[in-house]
Design brief:
The chain has one domain. Helix 2 packs antiparallel against helix 3, helix 4 runs antiparallel to helix 13 and helix 8 runs parallel beside helix 12. The chain contains 13 helices and no strands. 37% of the residues are buried.
């Protein structure tokens, strides 16, 4: 379920004066960080991705469904404001004890704003299957290069992926979203799989999901970060290795996993409703 892959957050032009955070500053700082990461813009992109995925569900599971009705259902489920609220609440809880000043300093600086813009732009671009396919092919070609700028970019990104454990975190999130999708089908009466069968089906996807995730991440990040020079990318990588960067990485996965889990279950329940109500 490539729809369920998720990465970092994205952009704004907030210019703040930040210093060591005090406890009473934390609520204002977390809201400023949400703006600096452009969680709202990220939710808008993921809403668009979810609408595309919903159309795929109709094609795969409900070829005879009322497509207009299904499209309205998918759109209602992917309410961007509600999606953003779920993400922000999860992140707010996860970052409760984190000093946010270093994160705000990075993400409100020109380099942070540029990186966020590049990440969100790449995410939008990947909704075009042709662009995604080209990026995947380019990443496979870069994998065999011995030297040169593309090889250097590849190696820097590979290290970032390893430092932040992005493959395993994405695999865990994707498998859990798939688990909740299957449970939603069962709870909605469209499947009679037992819990053991569901777990077996999900775990059977683990290695394929890991391979797909690793390839997708490399292609996506190489597309996003190609405009950066090696020093800019090294500075970004160093931020993610700080204690605050690691806290942010964990918080992003907590928030977005919570959102995707809810969406997966709701989509499955809605699909089950359409399946079980279809005329014989």
């Amino acid at each position: 379920m490539r729809w369920a892959l998720r990465l970092f957050g994205l952009m704004t032009a907030l210019m703040l004066v930040v210093g060591p955070g005090r406890a009473e500053d934390h609520p204002a700082q977390i809201e400023a960080l949400f703006q600096a990461l452009d969680i709202a813009g990220n939710a808008d992109v993921m809403r668009a991705e979810g609408v595309i995925y919903g159309a795929q569900i109709a094609q795969d599971l409900m070829p005879d469904a009322d497509l207009d009705s299904w499209a309205r259902t998918v759109s209602d489920i992917h309410d961007a404001d509600r999606m953003r609220g779920v993400v922000e609440q999860g992140m707010r809880e996860a970052l409760r004890d984190t000093d946010l000043a270093p994160l705000l300093a990075f993400y409100t600086a020109p380099i942070g704003q540029r990186i966020i813009t590049l990440e969100l732009g790449a995410r939008r671009a990947f909704m075009d299957e042709a662009i995604e396919a080209d990026a995947m092919a380019a990443a496979r070609q870069a994998a065999v290069l011995m030297d040169g700028p593309r090889a250097e970019l590849r190696d820097q990104i590979a290290q970032m992926i390893e430092d932040s454990d992005l493959v395993e975190l994405n695999v865990a999130g994707t498998l859990n979203a798939n688990l909740l999708f299957l449970r939603g089908l069962v709870d909605g009466g469209a499947s009679d799989l037992g819990e053991d069968d569901i777990l077996g089906d999900v775990w059977a996807q683990e290695e394929a999901t890991r391979t797909d995730t690793r390839e997708w991440l490399m292609a996506f990040l190489m597309l996003a970060y190609a405009p950066l020079d090696k020093d800019e990318l090294a500075e970004y990588a160093a931020m993610w290795r700080t204690p605050e960067g690691r806290d942010l990485n964990r918080a992003l996965f907590i928030g977005f996993n919570r959102m995707y889990d809810q969406l997966s279950y709701l989509l499955a329940r809605a699909a089950a409703e359409h399946l079980t109500s279809a005329p014989l």
